[in-house]
Fold these 3 entries.
Entry 1:
Amino acid sequence: MLKTILVILPLACLVLVLMLILRNNSVPENLGVRKGRLAPLPTSPNAVSSQTDDTGRQVAPLPFIGDLRQTTEALLQAINNYPGRVQIVSRTRTYIHCVFSTARMRFKDDVEFSLDAGNKVVHFRSASRLGYSDMGLNRRRYDKLASLYLHRT
């Protein structure tokens, strides 16, 4: 019995670790803009959005800076000046999807910008791929990106 436990327990741990690695490296299927809206937030508190009714996880949309092209350029500048690991995964005329990685554990968070030219605002969504709590990281990321975007040089 003990031999069986000593074999099964490490295998179960290995499977769990492999599943976490796979999920951390898989882009969620629900990302993007559908009917003018970014994906709803997960039920876990590790995300923020400008398009949620949950006031505890709501952030303000960013105002346009000039026209669509100027706004896109300002967003890209803010993203590129963000301190930390970031990769732009996809970009269209009105949408940007980035993946931000934490320094130590390399946990990945998906950050999306939806440029609403009609209302001249940029909607924002940032969500962790793993875990339950992000200890405020996604909100701090929004605050830093908003500051870089609004106070660029």
Entry 2:
Amino acid sequence: MSKIDLTLVRKTLIDEQVSLTVDIQNERDQLQQHVEGNPDVFDLADKRRHQEIAASRLSLMNQRVEQVRAALKRLDEGKYGICARCDKDINPERLKAIPYTTFCVSCQEQLERANR
């Protein structure tokens, strides 16, 4: 992987992990405030909708944290930037855009088509 600065990648991934961890805690705090501060019977539907949205956001953020952690592990193991499906190098531009990606564009497209 000579076309991408792995030190910069590590810093980017760690920064993303820290940012997501803060966002997750903020989302949890807001959800708790909403639950405690909204006892009105007429607002139950709004309360439920807010809880579902917050739960969905938390799930997505937790998934992203796991992806970032996995990317850091691949970096430590010397496997960063190698497609988990075809073992070819992932395009450096793709890694710059999505530093935690696991698949090259071709394999990602194949997986998305198969999951439709």
Entry 3:
Amino acid sequence: MKNLLISKNKNKAKKLKRLGICAGFLLVLVVFFFSGSVLQVGAADGAEETTASAGASGNMPLMQLESAEPEKAALGVSPVIIELILERGRSTEKKITVFNITNFPLPVKGNTESFFVLEDVEPGAEEIFDVSSWVSIEPADFILQPREHKEVKISIDVPPEAEPGGHYASIYFQPLIPVEVLSPQTAFLTARVGTLGFFVVQGEIVEKAELGELEVRTLQQFGPVDFKFPIRNAGNVHLLPAGEVIITGFLGNEKEKLEISPSAILPQTTKEITAQWDKKYLFGKFSVEVNISYGSENKKLVAGPVDFWVVPWLSLLIGGSLLTAVLVFCIMFRRRVGLALTALFNPEKLSEKERRGINLLPRKDN
């Protein structure tokens, strides 16, 4: 009889040990998952700090060595953007100011170039971004004394056959370093400065924009949530669309409103606009809509609504698995768990047989 009891107790102990190992393994998975998330966030922050530190340390040798401090050979220009309404077959003049911000005389050369466009330009529209042949600079070459500024005349001669609408060009001024200040021990930083020309030729002006499809990830575990949508300028003059991204909850209540700042979109180009809902911890179903207004008549464009979900499904899966394991353990061994809790908090209620069963009393040999 005694051997039978010992065998039964050993089998139960083995079962308890196996269940304990399983529960411990699930607990380790949960801890690893959440600690991994924290480590990833910390690593991102650390990487940002490291980058900033590297940038600072990269400048340190230049700042510490007085003999290596560079002379600044640079110019300033005002205004940086010229917006003019022009007539076909006529010439229009505009004055801009060029500054010498160095401490020595500086020769300057001016020239005109095509307008550099970052957005996608539709085929056949390239010519509207290169009207540099319309623009002349007087004087184009001059010398600025230290801290001196000079007014330069810009003439725009519009051909009679010019198309109505927007036309664009860039006007640059390049500093030339005097030979007498050059030496092998001196470093110079030079950069040309420019004015952008936004010219609108009178005639039939078309203001037309098209709002593309609003894109957002349908399902993600955490925020932030990124939105993007393209705006195409199908007219013949540049536009400054602005608006807002409106996010609503499952019941239709407004959760967030993100402002879209005015951004220049040139004719026959498409620009991708982005916005971000920067909240990290979100749960549930949401809907997003974009409202855009543009042009002199304040025309409206709408995209959406588009539904998306933010659900931490991996965390819920691991937590649910762990909870299920605990419940199964409690159900299978509910009597022993109850006895253990009673022995821990109220041992006087246990009978002598129950005390012997959980080894609170020495077992008597028959």
